[in-house]
Amino acid sequence: MKKNILIFLLLIVINNLNAQSYMNGMANSGPLKIFTKAKTPEKYTGSPYINDLFLPTIIDDGERSLEAFARYNSVEDVVEIKVQKNSDEINVLPKLKAIKYRLLDYTIFIDNFKNTEGETIDGYMFEYFSDSGLRFLARPLPDVIPAKEARSGYEESRPAHLDVNMSYYIQKDGGRLKEVRLKEKDFKSIFSDKGKMDAYFKENKIKDEKDVIEMLKFYSE
């Protein structure tokens, strides 16, 4: 199984990099990036993961696919992979736009966008819905409370505490991302162009990602 993921990685790199950029490591070798924004502390409470479990995923680069198990680390901004669920070995593929991780409820991909405020959003995104020019995306952001060392015998040291906050976005027709909260009010301002939505929002509450997906399906009908 380890051989399978190495072959998969090799084929992706060959398809996405030319020999010159690979040898020299120059700017145009940008797609091949295996780096982290920060290191996960050795000791911590909470979690840097949306889900601590490695979930079934299909890794897809548009030409080939590989079944594996994955979870996203928000502190390091990487997708961790196991080719066998019970294995202790964790792999990380390069940060290539061509690679997508298709899980049951969402797809993880890396790209950069502009939001409606003109700010750049760069990194791994979760795609919950994509149809008829509409996309419902989320950017997981780490919330890190640093470790605290005891300053006296009366204090106790505290490990770092990790959590994940989700910033949600709607994209229409490839335009800039509009940040939204999981509240009807935010979606009413975007989808009020169709009369049928007034009745929908009166009868349906938006509390989580699944509610947004159902609303977008109804809007797109």
Describe the structure in your own words.
- The protein is an alpha+beta fold and 221 residues long.
- It has one domain (2-180).
- 22% of the residues lie in helices and 33% in strands.
- It has five helices and ten strands.
- It has helices at residues 2-16, 19-24, 184-191, 196-203, 209-220, and strands at residues 44-46, 55-60, 65-73, 78-82, 100-102, 107-114, 120-131, 134-145, 160-172, 178-180.
- A hairpin with a 4-residue loop joins strand 2 (55-60) and strand 3.
Give me a quick take on this structure.
This protein has helices spanning 2-16, 19-24, 184-191, 196-203, 209-220, and strands at 44-46, 55-60, 65-73, 78-82, 100-102, 107-114, 120-131, 134-145, 160-172, 178-180. It has 221 residues and is of the alpha+beta class.
Task: List the secondary-structure elements in sequence, H or E.
Answer: HHEEEEEEEEEEHHH
Q: Any idea what the radius of gyration is?
A: 20 Å
Mean pLDDT across every amino acid position = 83
By oligomeric state, this entry counts as: single chain
Cα separation of the termini? 43 Å
Helicity, as a percent range: 10-25%
Most strands sheet: 10 strands, mixed
- The number of distinct structural domains comes to 1
Q: How many β strands by DSSP?
A: 10
Signal peptide: 1-19
Keywords: Signal
Protein name: GLPGLI family protein
Organism: Zunongwangia mangrovi
Spell out the key features of this protein.
signal; 221 residues; GLPGLI family protein; 10 strands; alpha+beta
